[in-house]
Amino acid sequence: MPEPYGMIAAMRIILITGISGSGKSVGLNALEDAGYFCVDNLPPKLLRQLVATRMEEGGETLAVAMDARSADSLLSLPGDIRQLKQDGHDVKVLFLTAKTESLITRFSETRRSHPLSHRFRPPGSNEQPTLTECIQLEREIMSGIEGVGHVIDTSGLSANKLRAWIKDLVETERTPLTLLFESFAFKFGVPLDADMVFDVRVLPNPYYDTALRPFNGRDEPVIAFLDSQAHVAELLADIRTFIEKWLPSFKNDNRSYLTVAIGCTGGQHRSVYMVEQLARHFRASERVLVRHRELS
Q1: Which tens digits make up the pLDDT trace of 21-52?
Q2: Is 187 among the annotated ligand-binding positions?
Q3: Is 67 labelled as part of a ligand binding site?
Q4: Is residue 213 part of an annotated ligand binding site?
Q5: Could you tell me where the DSSP H helices lie in the chain?
Q6: Is 69 annotated as a binding residue?
Q7: 156 marked as binding residue
Q8: CA distance readout (Å), 218 to 94, 201, 228
Q9: Which of 152, 237, 250, 294 sees the fewest Cβ atoms within 10 Å?
């Protein structure tokens, strides 16, 4: 007869939630690949019961996906999270979102209806709501949860890149705070998950040098060009000083992640260079992750 499981003291728990079409299924699959016991579309009111059951079974990890289909019990989720933390569990919340135009494109490509399309009717109408109306309603429903965890903007992200980002975040789950530096192009919009945004479009642009255009900010020719510009060093020092000044406050606020977004016109040269330089500096004292949104 097999030995019964021994009940453990605490678990590592990741709650993945957000807007429909933003990649929750991709994220949950990535967590399953990382060894997590995964449950999809769990009503929030059952979360603490599930945790207790997994502890009795000796489980050490748990990943749960929740969304607006359980809208009636979402209001209790922040309190349940606080209680789980007080009980000693390591709880992280990932909130996935995307720009409305990206969500519309994804639903069109998959030809799936929105989960809320059959659950409500617009005021004064007996017709099914439009996709845009469903997305707007879901944003309103989920607004109370968005601020609880780390926001990931999946607009324009491939499934493979999102899986890689989730994997990086899982690997940092035991650290007090992770500094996440992200380069982006202003012409494609500011990342929705940014906590700090710095605009480096004032710097000389390597794009206008035809010899430098094919390279990016991680390549030596571009690095040498930007290293030679006095204003680049000045702006880099200012950004570094600002982050160093306010980082302790974010740590004291019990933040798990701090996303610093650096933007230029095309997201290829200046922003990439600045992110790499900042990451190299802060790696000496902090846990650092790097994202380059516009680089394939």
Answers
A1: 999 999 999 999 888 999 998 988 899 999 99
A2: no
A3: yes
A4: no
A5: 24-33, 47-56, 71-74, 77-86, 100-110, 131-146, 159-171, 220-227, 230-252, 270-282
A6: yes
A7: no
A8: 29, 17, 15
A9: 237
